[in-house]
Design a protein that fits this description.
Among the domains are: 39 residues, no CATH class; 146 residues, Rossmann fold (3-Layer(aba) Sandwich); 66 residues, no CATH class. It is globular. The chain is built from 9 helices and 18 strands. It has 366 residues and is of the alpha/beta class. Strand 5 and strand 6 form a beta hairpin. The protein has a 4-stranded parallel beta sheet with strand order 10-8-11-12. The protein has a 3-stranded antiparallel beta sheet with strand order 6-5-13. Helices cover 26% and strands 18% of the residues. The termini are far apart.
Length: 366
């Protein structure tokens, strides 16, 4: 093995076993790279990871932090929260670290009443059920399609009994919530077998092109109310399909994971959630806050505005832009929030001339 340094080349008597399969790791400083074979490196436990987490890692992180502070303290131990045992050195400097977590005084605000077309929902602990409720305002859907995206791990035919059972359950759930949905899709199409991941680009551009060609077979998009798309669990396919429908074809889409759609476990709750999303996408109103909770917003014509900035993560290439997103209400019920997004100079929001993402944005009254 030969390593290049500022002083030239240094040679080590090390036989690499994975030289052709593992990458090298840059352990140098900015502008002064120092590349070391990965098989010669060990990662010490407890290292911070500054890159973007994958779906499995993100889900595991959320599960580990989804609990009350006291529960996490008992499961993890105080050392993970920065608590250190008393030492003579700390005592010498008059430092004493308590093993008790800080208690912050707080109060719990009463939950507002959530109303539906002919009933109200009981809000408890930040959530409420959807049993026996109908949406305030629902649209009429006479022409809808189904697209089945098939890859090497997921696939189903339009005549499969499990798919027909799902369609029946989906229609019944939507109708029970008030949607005037046609009893069956006008067309069901399936894609060809998608290119496998090892033969496609990292972002599955080839597979997305295959899906695009199948969507074109549905015909005039202006005559379609929405397309129900059954997908394998692949983030690149999902983002590609949403861009196709929103940007290229200009048609509403509702994406579902094929595995979840065909599963009988928890189907009632899953389909109720899908019905909510579909109704909102079609311009309907699912639920509203009771008038006594909305009075302070409706005293004058009001717009609710939300602004956020996503900065490049530390491992992004130099010059990667920041992404700015803005949403604003366009109706008196504060249900519809069209969005706008744009790119700006990398970390430009930290300049004095541009408000920080941590700035407080107040209501704008017209």
């Amino acid at each position: 093995m030969i390593v290049r340094t500022d002083l030239g080349f240094e040679e080590y008597n090390i036989q690499l076993e994975e030289a052709d399969s593992l990458p090298v790791i840059d352990l140098g400083k900015p502008g002064k790279p120092l590349y070391i074979p990965a098989e010669l490196c060990d990662i010490e436990p407890g290292q911070h990871y500054f890159g973007k987490l994958g779906p499995k890692e993100a889900a595991a992180m959320l599960r580990s932090t989804n609990g009350a502070p006291g529960q996490r303290l008992s499961e993890w131990g105080s050392s993970r929260f920065g608590s250190v045992p008393a030492t003579p050195l700390l005592h010498a400097f008059g430092v004493n670290v308590s093993s008790q977590m800080s208690a912050v005084p707080a109060r719990e605000l009463p939950a507002p009443k959530v109303t539906y077309a002919s009933s109200s929902a009981v809000v408890q602990n930040g959530w409420w059920g959807l049993q026996d409720v109908q949406f305030h305002c629902s649209g009429k859907v006479s022409n809808w399609k189904i697209l089945i995206v098939c890859d090497d791990t997921h696939g189903i035919t339009p005549s499969d009994p499990s798919l027909l059972g799902f369609i029946s359950a989906f229609v019944n759930k939507c109708r029970s919530k008030g949607l005037d949905l046609a009893p069956r899709p006008s067309t069901i199409l399936e894609t060809d077998q998608l290119l496998s991941k090892d033969k496609d680009s990292a972002r599955r551009t080839g597979a997305v092109s295959q899906i695009s060609r199948t969507i074109e077979l549905f015909g005039d998009m202006q005559l379609i109310d929405f397309i129900l798309i059954l997908l394998p669990p692949d983030g690149h396919l999902y983002s590609g399909v949403k861009q196709l429908c929103d940007v290229k074809f200009g048609v509403h889409s509702q994406c579902l994971q094929l595995r979840k759609a065909l599963s009988n476990q928890g189907r009632e709750y899953y389909l109720a959630s899908v019905a909510q999303k579909l109704n909102t996408n079609l311009g309907g109103i699912n639920h509203l806050l009771a008038s006594d909770a909305m009075g302070w917003l409706t005293e004058q014509p009001t717009i609710l505005v939300g602004v956020d900035v996503t900065q490049p993560h530390p491992n992004s290439p130099a010059g990667t832009p920041s992404v700015v997103g803005v949403v604003a209400s366009v109706d008196s019920d504060f249900v519809q929030f069209p969005a706008s997004a744009c790119l700006q100079k990398s970390r430009g929001e930290v300049s004095d001339a541009i408000p920080s993402r941590r700035s407080c944005f107040r209501l704008t009254r017209l």
